[in-house]
Amino acid sequence: MQTKSSADVIFEKRNKSSEIIIVLFEYCNFNCEFCPQNHSSKIGLSYEEIVSKADTVIDYINGNKFATEFVVRIMGGELFNDEIVTDELLSAYSQLLHRIRTESNLQGRDLDFVYVTNFSMKECRDKVLEYIQKETDSAFVVSYDIKGRFNAKNLEIFKENIEIYADYIRNINTVMTRQNIEAILQGHEYHDYLYDRFDYSWDMYVKTTTSMHEAPLESQVLQFYKLLVDKYPEVEYIRPFLKKPELGSFNHTICSRGNNLSIDEYGNRLADGCAGTHYLKRQDIPIATKSNTDFISSSVDDFLEKYNCFACPYFQRCPMACFSGIKSGNMIQDMDTCINKLTFDYVEEKWKS
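RESULT FIELD:
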């Protein structure tokens, strides 16, 4: 039997929606423990540095014939930090978007922009509201850390901003740390409010320090996935598990690798488009000592070999996972069986009952 390479897997299952990540700068008003960035750095904050990043994006879009749409994910740091928001900064954001819109050869394909933000702004609220109202193809992706980020004052500001900018929120996003998972397993009223009101997604935790206290157990993640199936079925990652299988049914990978672009605060294009691997290397995580390409290839190969993915009855339907995160130790392994397979098994049993 012919064995498929990891490159074959990525090619066959890669997502047709192209994700473009632009890290404008890393300067931030928060210092979340799970975040690998240097939040005191102001590299990339100037007007020229921001707008010049359009060049790489335009070249990428014009050379990408595979994607059916492009989603440009603009992030910091914190883009709307009260300390840095000025008319000039917002003008730089606007000019960046304008150049990408007008100089890219989209050939009828969709182009959307999202701003990743922690929603901590207060003094600059009016400026930001006026700005987002003008950028009609743009929206917010709101980062919500259930446990660990907010004190009482910051949480109140966050909740106020949810109401102020509700019409411009594309989705709420939470990182799958052990603490956040435990909070949801125990029940969390405000999370449920956000889930009921907005699209909600969970990002895989990528370990970027030598500490393991934020990494969940695999068994915890499986319990969490089952809860999502039962109570939060519209979470982005869980939808493929609930999609009824049909003849020739197929799900793309959640990871956009193979059809993505990432740019760092210096304007560098990151190898294979993987921002997670970039941060692992920068933090000197031992597993990431190879080149990005070798690291990503070995991550996929290790995953496929461990779980014998090609023999799995759910292979075509599986959304796979963040391979870089798995390789780096985003979960503490306490199980022998793939948690995705066990989640599919759980769904199949629910359908029978």
